[in-house]
Amino acid sequence: MKARDVMVSPVMTLKPSSTVADAAKLFLDNRISAAPVVDDQGKILGIVSEGDLMHRVEAGTQRRRSWWLTPFVGESTLATEYVKAHAKKVADIMTRNVTTVSPDTPLHEIAGLIEGKRIKRVPVVSNGQLVGVVSRANLVQALATAGKNLEVPMTDATVREKLLGHLKTQPWAHLTLVNITVSGGVVDLWGITRSDTEKKALRVAAEAMPGVRAVNDHLVIEKMIHAT
After folding, report:
1. φ, ψ of residue 182 in degrees (nearest 5)
2. Measuring CA to CA, which residue among 28, 85, 81 is closest to residue 59?
3. Which domains does the chain have, with CATH numbers?
4. Which of 85, 143, 192, 199 could form a disulfide with 177 if both were Cys (CB 3.0 to 4.6 A apart)?
5. pTM of the full predicted structure?
6. 95 Cβ partners below 8 Å, 6+ apart?
7. 167-200, pLDDT tens digit by residue?
8. Is 94 exposed, middle or buried (0-12, 13-18, 19+ CB in 10 A)?
C-alpha cells in the first residue's frame, strides 16, 4: 500500500496570517491535532500541532523556570520559548522544516520516517501542492484492514517454497539445521537454532506467510543442547 491509499484528503489547513486562536478553534471544531500551513497557491510552508499551543501565556501554561536555571538554558532557547508563548500569528509558532512524502511513497517508508523523526504525521505533496496527510492512526487503520484482503489459495508445496525462499534472504536465519514441513496449511518447524531470538523470528516469519493457518514450533536452541 502507498500513501495515496490511506491519506486523509482534503486537509484542514491554516494560513501564515491565521491567529493562534484560529488554530485552536480549528483543532477543537474538527477534532484534529495538527494542521499544515499553506500559502495562497497551496504550497506547504509549515505545520502547527497541539504541542505548539501547550505553553501559552493566555492559559497561564507558559514555561516557568527557576531563576538559577536561567543562565544554563541560553538566550536563544529563552527567546524561542517567549515566541511560542506570546506570538499571535501561526507563522511565528509553526514548524518550518516539514518532512513530506509523495502519493506513491510506500507505507513502510512512511512508518520509518514517522518513527525515525519522532513525528505523528507527514503531509503528502504532489507537484508542490498539498494533497493529503498520513498519520500514525492511518497506518494503524491500514494494518487493521490489511487482513481483510482476499488471498489466492496456495498449495502446501507453494507455501513451503515461498517461506524457505523468504528465509534464505534473511541474514539472521541459519537454515542448515532447520527443516520446514507444511500440511493442510499448518507449518511445522523442526531442527536447531542458534538463539531464542532466531527461534522466535522463524516462528513469526511462518505465521506471517500467506496461506499459513497455524504454526507448530518444535525448534530447539543450540545452547540448550550443549547444556544437557
Report:
1. -135, 130
2. 85
3. 3-146 (3.10.580.10), 156-227 (3.30.1340.30)
4. 192
5. 0.62
6. 46, 47, 48, 49, 52
7. 999 999 999 889 999 999 999 999 999 999 999 9
8. buried
Cα 192–chain centre separation = 35
Alpha helices in 19-155 (DSSP H): 20-30, 70-73, 75-86, 90-93, 107-117, 136-146
Residues 73-110 pLDDT 10s? 666 777 777 877 888 999 999 999 899 999 999 999 99
What type of residue is 26? L
Grid coordinates standing for 65? 523556570
What are all long-range contacts of 106-112, with beta carbons under 8 Å and residues at least 24 apart?
A: 106/1, 106/2, 107/1, 107/2, 107/3, 107/5, 107/6, 107/134, 107/139, 107/142, 110/3, 110/134, 110/139, 111/139
Of 137, 162, 166, 140, nearest to 151 (Cα)? 162
